[in-house]
Amino acid sequence: MELAIDRLRAQARIQFVKATLDNIDFKAARAYTRTMLGAAQTLEDNDLKDIDKKLDEIAATPDSPQLKSYAMGFLLLKQNG
Question: In Å, how far are 36, 37, 53, 72, 78 from 48, measured between CA atoms?
Fold first, then answer.
């Protein structure tokens, strides 16, 4: 049952990320994302450093800019719900 629920939620996350980040430049969106995360009052410094590290890892992959944007979207959904 949990697997079926997770599959449905994953499909919704995929649709959201693809619709939101389609044709979005990863480099520009990354800088914007990092800046906007500074507005979160409940985001701890360690969490922000962890997000920065993961964004660095995404940036270092040989993936296309589009796939990097999608990966960033999934990272933010996982972090912020």
Answer: 11, 8, 9, 14, 13
The tally of domains found in the chain comes to 1
- Whether 1 has a pLDDT exceeding 70, the answer reads no
Domain range for residue 7? 2-80
pLDDT of residue 38: 78
Residue-wise over 34-62: b if at least 16 C-beta within 10 A, else e? Answer: eeebeeeeeeeeeeeeebeebbeebeeee
Tokens representing 28?
């520009």
